[in-house]
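Blinded run. Sample ID left blank on purpose so nobody reads anything into the name before looking at the predicted structure. Input follows.
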Amino acid sequence: MTKKPHFIYQFTPKDHPELMTDPDAWTEDDSRISEEHFNYLKQGLADEVVIFAGRSLDGIGPAVVVLEVINEQAAREFMEADPFVKEGLFGADLHPFRAALVRVP
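Blinded prediction complete.
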């Protein structure tokens, strides 16, 4: 069986960079989108598309999602359907990705 390629996407602030550093800047609508985003990634994890997702806690470092999918088009489609991106709360940049070292639990 051929191993599927990995991709990473990193969120970028759009019109409201303060969302990366100020929890009080989130509106009720932003919070709804955030919940949809979290549930979308949880489903991606269950579907074995998402390898891991997370963000830095200092508001400066990145927020990323690492995927294992059949090709770049599938990665792009997944990224663009992410509620953070789809709803325009954040932009995202997609890149091919390879983990050089992985600790196995």
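Unblinding after everyone has recorded impressions. The mean pLDDT is 91.
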